[in-house]
Amino acid sequence: MAFLEKQSPGRVLLDDTVALTALIEASQNLHSHTVSLVIKRYSDFDMLNSSLLVSGVSLPLPPKKLLGNMDREFIAERQRGLQVYLDFITQHHILATCQLVKKFLDTNNYSANYTEIALQQVSMFFRSDPKWEVVEPLKDIGWRIRKKYFLIKNKEQPKERQVLSWVDLGPDKFLSDKDLQSTMKLLPSLTNPYICPVTFANTSELSALVIRMFNEKGTLRDLICKVKPKEAFMRKYCNPKKIQGLELQQIRTYGRQILEVLKFLHDKGFPYGHLHASNIVIEDNTCKVLDIENSLLGLPSYYRPYITQFRKINTTESIDVYSFGHLLYEMTYGRPPDAVPVDQYPAVTNTSVVSVLQSILSTDACKTGMPTVAQLLQTPLFSDVLLFHSEKLQFKIPTKLRDALKTAKECMEKRLQEEQKTNQQHRRLTRAQSHHGSEEEKRRRKILARKKSRQSAYENEEDLSVKYNNNSGMSSALGLTPTLFLKCYPPVGFNANPVPGEIPSYRLTPTLFLESYPPIG
């Protein structure tokens, strides 16, 4: 079933998880306004800040100033303050990926109205299959800029609500269009008690559409943060006011169920890489994983900004384990870790939780590599958890498609490894530049330069002394006799016409000449 018209080819596939950075290099006066970043006025920063206030995060925007705002010292101080503001929002995991920040820093690539584009494409789908009807758009409930959600219903079952997601294909899309279409059509046939079933899935050349049941209670993260599922992602999760970790038995049960899903997908050779608390729903005390199609569509992982910092996390399987570490931390403490690696953990009643977290999120784990899913299933935290399900596991992938998935998986991993290598080189260069420009290093170089200067002067004196001694020895061997002459020079400022009766004074300068005489005999 075709639902999308062919769009213009040749577009650039951007990785929206790559955080943009900005450096204010100068400011200038333009029509009585101080302009930073060439085209950005303070009012632009103020408008961005007003839009981001919905996040509930305390943002360090420097305050307005009406008088004296053209003073040179104030402009320098304001420039530093705006740089701190930019650094803060571009380093915040959620704010850095929102379209407001992306558009502010890169207007050319992020000015499109993706909601309008999605509506157009979904309308085409509804014309091709009129049994579906839009109930309402679910505005900004996800974190992806190019993914939009709509609450829909089947006219034949009007009381049943489903959610339709539309998304652009991403930079990791390495399946051919034919293989992608074939694999997506397999998804409704997948049966696993811990995977949310797909009602319908289809793709075009540049985008995809998926329909699945809508969960009124929301996702696992909604449960942890105690928020309503239809609210905007940034409002719900940037700075939640009420958070609560799960009970130990819930952590063990949900954790075991999720690990079973990962093992199932890994055994099938199906790449996932998109595990996080917003991609899990809870039904009757059972976890169900969402968005297993994301890797097929080439979408980058939610945790990719973290993953690219660690070269040992370089396969889709290790990405799943690393993501599980983040999820386990969030289930335990009610919030994601402030930074990774994590070597200090708040106290919990069961030390086996911390043991698993350390095996995934500690500095050593991030440097040496992730444990496998099989190893995690054998830990005391999950090994004795009993699961009861009668549903048969089924996901038949033809051999040809399995080979295509394997090739696509290798291409995804190669792109990740190249980005990790680039990031490591950049970090080394940054550290070297920072060290070279530090005050301590400058002092060290000055001391070293003075030592070298003194050593050089000492060596020159020694050379001159040796040369003089050599000359003296040669003179004696040849019978050269030194004769001292005195040359007379007028003093500095000497007047050639002295006052009558005044005796001029002179300075005498000894000059050494060598006179040669034949040796005796």
TrEMBL record:
Residues 424-434, 443-454 have a biased composition (Basic residues). Keywords: Cytoplasm. GO terms for molecular function: ATP binding; phosphatidylinositol binding; protein kinase activity. Residues 1-112 form the PX domain. Gene3D superfamilies: Phox-like domain, Transferase(Phosphotransferase) domain 1. It holds the Pfam family PX. The keyword Cytoplasm applies. It is found in: Cytoplasm. It comes from the Eukaryota. Residues 135-429 form the Protein kinase domain. InterPro entries: Kinase-like_dom_sf, Prot_kinase_dom, PX_dom, PX_dom_sf, SortingNexin/PXDomain-PKLike. Residues 417-462 are annotated as: Disordered. PROSITE patterns: PROTEIN_KINASE_DOM (PS50011), PX (PS50195). One of its GO terms (biological process) is protein targeting to lysosome. GO terms for cellular component: early endosome; late endosome; plasma membrane. This is PX domain containing serine/threonine kinase.
